[in-house]
Design goal:
By secondary structure, the protein is mainly alpha-helical. The chain has helices spanning 2-21, 24-40, 46-74, 95-105, 121-141. Helix 1 (2-21) packs antiparallel against helix 2 (24-40), helix 1 (2-21) runs parallel beside helix 3 and helix 2 (24-40) packs antiparallel against helix 5. The protein is globular, with a radius of gyration of 18 Å.
Length: 142
Amino acid sequence: MAGRNKALTLYKSILRAHDKFLPHSMRQLGDAYVKAEFRLHKTSKPEETVQFFVEWEKYLQHIERTGRGNQSMDVGLVDNRQQQVVPSSSPPSSTNNVMNNRQNAGSFFGKDMSKDVAFNEEQQSQLGKLREEAANAGKESG
């Protein structure tokens, strides 16, 4: 029963953080993904559940920390955005330009994954579905 209460508390906290900090299109995708993941893990083994909670708690901390940082910058309390100078010899599709566009758009959520992360077949399938949903969400909002 304690696991159910912990899951419900974490679930609600994540949805509240989405509502407070994410742009509408990201919130729709995030809410749908969180709901699906929590449903899938209702019947997980205890050892899987522990890791599930750890990772979602990290996610919640990231959303809250990033969202608060964005709010502070939006109201002018903090100006820690580093200006990236793109040399004129850089191609238009360079990583620096992508990062500048992301920063200018006001979305500072997410982080790059380590290149040495290995996914099993199920995880690869889930990432493919998530990529598809993200692409569709981007088309709907743009």
